[in-house]
Amino acid sequence: MQADLLTLASLGCHPLSVLTALTVQDTAGVEAVLPIDSGWIADQARALLEDIPIAAFKLGMLGSVEAIAVIAEIISDYPDIPLVLDP
Known about the structure:
The chain has three helices and four strands; from the N terminus they run αββαβαβ. By secondary structure, it is of the alpha+beta class. The strands form two sheets. Strands 1-2 form a two-stranded antiparallel sheet. α2 (38-51) packs parallel to α3.
């Protein structure tokens, strides 16, 4: 998360985060994942979308099938906003 934020900021972007999972990780890999409740994900995203114009969505690790479903629903409401997938 921090590396993505720093990279985007260095490119002149104002990144906003919606957390979908908490991880235990280091530079070598992910050791554990704790998914965030999909209702919380939706609430985080909708709060930002109602507050600030969004130029693009960037998706990283989503954490759960429920997170994927709620994010798919949200981004379908904004078909003109570009989507970047980060595997």
